[in-house]
TrEMBL record, chain A:
Organism: Hibiscus sabdariffa (roselle)
Protein name: F-box domain-containing protein
Keyword Cytoplasm: no
InterPro entries: COI1_F-box (IPR041567), F-box-like_dom_sf (IPR036047), F-box_dom (IPR001810), Leu-rich_rpt (IPR001611), Leu-rich_rpt_Cys-con_subtyp (IPR006553), LRR_dom_sf (IPR032675), LRR_FXL15/At3g58940/PEG3-like (IPR055411), Transp_inhibit (IPR041101)
Domain of life from the UniProt record: Eukaryota
Keyword Protein biosynthesis recorded: no
Residues in F-box domain copies: 9-50
PANTHER family xrefs: F-BOX/TPR REPEAT PROTEIN POF3, PROTEIN TRANSPORT INHIBITOR RESPONSE 1
UniProtKB/TrEMBL annotation, chain B:
Organism: Hibiscus sabdariffa
Tagged with keyword Secreted: no
PROSITE patterns noted in UniProt: PB1
Name of the featured protein: Auxin-responsive protein
Coiled coil spans: none
Keywords of this entry: Auxin signaling pathway, Nucleus, Repressor, Transcription, Transcription regulation
Record family assignment: Belongs to the Aux/IAA family.
Length: 625, 233
């Protein structure tokens, strides 16, 4: 009956209906209804999200979706942010760009996260996509400002260039002058991560002046404070502004033109930057503070009283990033001034110091949670915590969706009772029913994982460090967390049992990272053999893992599901556990013989014969990975 | 058994040479591999820590080395005094910015350890690495870490004989002429120096980036290193 309905509409009508369906999940569902819907849908899908660039190959994506205009790719595992993933691991975007250059000449948007992007890639983008509009390089690396110059020179329709947190080889600010004088389409520019002292101020000012649609401008540290007024004067329509250096000798004329420039920015809602702040210049932003919804003060190294003075002017604030200089007293003040607060991130000013350098404890977080009813997202670094505090937070903030707590010293117990913090985190997962992301710290036993497995049904991402006592902990998480997509674990005593017992679970997740745990090489091999749709990669810089007994633990392990098979761009310190690896490597403890070979062939045969429907499911699921 | 494996591996590791004395105006002199620990001792004793038996230090120096190698895979025990990699989970760009901020503000001395990330390149290797020099407290620790990172490239390229020759003044030029690897760094003045010619702390303060060069390329640096040592001494 469904078939009849489908045939009675011309394809164009269906396509038009589908164009109202934007979310990947809905699109995937649509594509599964029947073969003709699958066909129609795949020809009109314009936007692709690939959460793990190795889960699928460029060719497979292009084959299925021939008319894509926007692509988002993620590369390295999250722990790469903290130097746990050695350089050269992978995440190269060049193969993607190269294939798309031919297949998607009308590609408009590329968004990349934690990928290696070279100047060659940028030049290829500039050359290949005539209508290119959006380039977002989030925490990427491998390119220089020469590559940016190529983009600036060629992409006439560029609207957005966002280099958020990327590691760029900044050869000086001349790349900005590569935007032609006729170019006026810029809407968003974020070059705040550029590290050179040189910047071409005149090119910047001219660019800002002629791009009348500019809404977001985040400058880098090289732009001095006395230039801000001039820049803002040319772009009073800005919604999101990031200063460069915000410090200089106090001069009243500089101050007044700065204050004047800020007051004419009636649309300004977000401020960031503020390197090298001189507190006397902060009042210049007071004219815009009442309308501010987002404030990033995470580079502002001023003391709590000055921070509080500023924050009292910001009653509409929804998002605040700040250093722990704010202290408990400052957070208390924040909680009374900023009732609209939804997101709070408190970073450590001295993460490696032995002793606390500021008076910031669990009390600060508790006071915000008690007084800000809309709080949803927390990232908090501190040096002590208690179960009582966590329970209070959980009970008063049931709407938390993201909770990341980092108690700086590993395995720190409840400072009041000296007990583990199991009960506290247990309360978080029990009360915050919509919790999607959780990072644990402090002294934790297997019990906390029991709570997580039991209650955290919507949890999608879990980060664990220096916690747990046995495989039971890992088992609770893998068997209980139904929505789990990403799990990253370091320095925990989790071994083979839980991993092997829950192998099937791994195919329902995007990825699993385990480093400095107790997973043996033999278990990795077994997993690689038994699970053909998982890539099991062992990262070990001290030499080939098969030069040691199978029972030896591996240094780092990264497992992810993939329909593309093992990747071939691995550096020498990454080994993939393939299906037939047992036959090649040392055979200590491994059953060898005709029965094994028979099993191997069975697995491989299955893969070759994978039913068409299952194959469709694989490909359609890539978008939500 | 495991130690045996590691010992064999050690022989092929990249080792940092410690030419030139630094303060005493000492130039590159004849020195065996085991005596590199001696040199470290001499430098630190000049900086004030006294009363250490050189022989004992030699032993413990080598044992510490082994412990570092072994404890690298022991999850429960972070290396003594050095930091745990990637903990607390703070992004590099946040670490470095705070470092410069605290330097500018009040005089908090040795208490806070600020990160000192430098890029490490090796001639012939296809990609760069980054290390945080604050993670280490001696040239030995750094040497171990670098060896691990680049082991896949250096195995067989830098035998222990090569290292001994490096210590030996008369054979230094021979070594630099060969294809063995030599660690060098760019200092604050923009000069390229041989690693090891200044006290460790001074090195950490002044090192901007590291480059593990082929010996043949480093040949021009030896005289410069000697010059700078003489100036400092």
């Amino acid at each position: 009956m469904q078939k009849k309905v489908a045939c009675s509409f011309p394809d164009e009508v269906l396509e038009h209906v589908f164009s109202f369906i934007q979310s990947d999940k809905d699109r995937n569902a649509v594509s599964m209804v029947c073969k003709s819907w699958y066909e129609i849908e795949r020809w009109c899908r314009r936007k692709i999200f690939i959460g793990n660039c190795y889960a699928v190959s460029p060719r497979m994506v292009i084959r299925r979706f021939p008319k894509v205009r926007s692509i988002e790719l993620k590369g390295k595992p999250h722990f790469a942010d903290f130097n746990l993933v050695p350089d050269g691991w992978g995440g190269y975007v060049l193969p993607w760009i190269a294939e798309m250059a031919g297949a998607y000449p009308w590609l408009e948007e590329i968004r990349l996260k934690r990928m290696v992007v070279t100047d060659e890639c940028l030049e290829l983008i500039a050359k290949s996509f005539k209508n290119f509009k959006v380039l977002v390089l989030f925490s990427c690396e491998g390119f220089s400002t020469d590559g940016l110059a190529a983009i600036a020179a060629s992409c006439m329709n560029l609207r957005e260039l966002d280099l958020r947190d990327s590691d760029v080889d900044d050869l000086g600010g001349h790349w900005l002058s590569h935007f032609p004088e006729t170019y006026t389409s810029l809407v968003s520019l974020n070059s705040s991560c550029l590290g050179s002292d040189e910047v071409s101020l005149s090119a910047l000012e001219r660019l800002v002046g002629r791009c009348t649609n500019l809404r977001t401008l985040r400058l880098n540290r090289a732009v001095p404070l006395d230039k801000i007024a001039n820049i803002l004067g040319r772009a009073p329509q800005l919604v999101d502004f990031g200063t460069g250096t915000y410090g200089a000798d106090l001069q009243s004329d500089v101050f007044s033109s700065l204050a004047g420039a800020f007051s004419s920015c009636k649309e300004l809602r977000s401020l960031s930057g503020f390197w090298d702040v001189v507190p006397a210049y902060l009042p210049a932003i007071y004219p815009v503070c009442s309308r501010l919804t987002s404030l990033n003060l995470s580079y502002v190294t001023i003391q709590s009283p000055d921070l509080v003075k500023l924050l009292r002017h910001c009653p509409s604030l929804q998002r605040l990033l700040v250093l722990d200089y704010i202290e408990d007293s400052g957070l208390e003040a924040l909680s009374s001034s900023c009732k609209e607060l939804q997101e709070l991130r408190v970073f450590p000013s001295d993460p490696f110091g032995e002793e606390p350098n500021v008076s910031l404890t669990e009390q600060g977080l508790v006071s915000v949670c008690l007084a800000c009813p809309k709080l949803q997202s927390v990232l908090y670094f501190c040096r002590r915590m208690s179960n009582v505090a966590l329970v209070t937070i959980a009970q008063n903030c049931p709407n938390l969706t993201r909770f990341r707590l980092c108690i700086i010293e590993p395995r720190t117990a409840d400072f009041l009772t000296l007990e583990p913090l199991d009960v506290g985190f247990g309360a978080i997962v029990e009360h915050c029913k919509d919790l999607r992301r959780l990072s644990l710290s402090g002294l934790l036993t297997d019990r906390v994982f029991e709570y997580i497995g039991r209650y955290a049904k919507k949890l999608e991402m879990l980060s664990v460090a220096f916690a747990g006592e046995s495989d039971l902990g890992l088992h609770h998480v893998l068997s209980g967390c139904e929505s789990l997509r990403k799990l990253e674990i370091r320095d925990c005593p989790f071994g083979d049992k839980a991993l092997l017992a829950n192998a099937a679970k791994l195919e329902t997740m995007r990825s699993l990272w385990m480093s400095s745990c107790a997973v043996s090489f033999g278990a990795c091999k077994l997993l690689g053999q038994k699970m053909p749709r998982l890539n099991v990669e062992v990262i070990d810089e001290s030499g080939p893992p098969d030069s040691r007994p199978d029972s030896c633990p591996v240094d780092k392990l990264y497992i992810y599901r993939s329909v593309a098979g093992p990747r071939f761009d691995m550096p020498p310190f990454v080994w993939t556990m393939e299906e037939d690896s047992a036959l090649q490597l040392n055979t200590i403890g491994n059953p060898i013989g005709s029965e094994w070979e028979h099993n191997m062939k069975g697995i491989q045969g299955l893969r070759a014969q994978m039913p068409f429907v299952l194959y469709l499911a694989e490909l359609s699921n890539t978008s939500q990975w | 058994m495991e130690v045996g494996l590691k010992m064999g591996f050690e022989e092929t590791e990249l080792r940092l040479g410690l030419p030139g004395g630094g303060d005493g105006g000492e130039v590159v002199r004849k020195r065996g591999f085991s005596e590199t620990v001696d040199l470290k001792l001499k430098l630190s004793s000049k900086q004030g820590s006294s009363g250490i038996d050189p022989n004992e230090e030699k032993m413990t120096g080598l044992t510490k080395e082994k412990n570092l190698l072994l404890s690298a895979t022991d999850p429960a025990k972070p290396p003594a005094k050095a930091q745990v990699v990637g903990w607390p989970p703070v992004r590099s760009f946040r670490k470095n910015i705070l470092a410069t901020a605290t330097q500018k503000s009040s005089s908090d001395e040795s208490g806070g350890e600020k990160a000192a990330f430098v890029k490490v390149s090796m001639d012939g290797a296809p990609y760069l690495r980054k290390v945080d020099l604050r993670m280490y407290t001696s040239y030995h620790q750094l040497s171990d870490a670098l060896a691990k990172m680049f082991s896949s490239f250096t195995i067989g390229n830098c035998g222990s004989q090569g290292v001994k020759d490096f210590m030996n003044e008369s054979k230094l030029m021979d070594l630099l002429n060969s294809s063995d690897y030599v660690p060098t760094y760019e200092d604050k003045d923009g000069d390229w120096m041989l690693v090891g010619d200044v006290p460790w702390e001074m090195f950490v303060e002044s090192c901007k980036r590291l480059r593990i060069m082929k010996g043949t390329e480093a040949i021009g640096l030896a005289p410069k290193a000697v010059e700078k040592c003489k100036k400092r001494g």
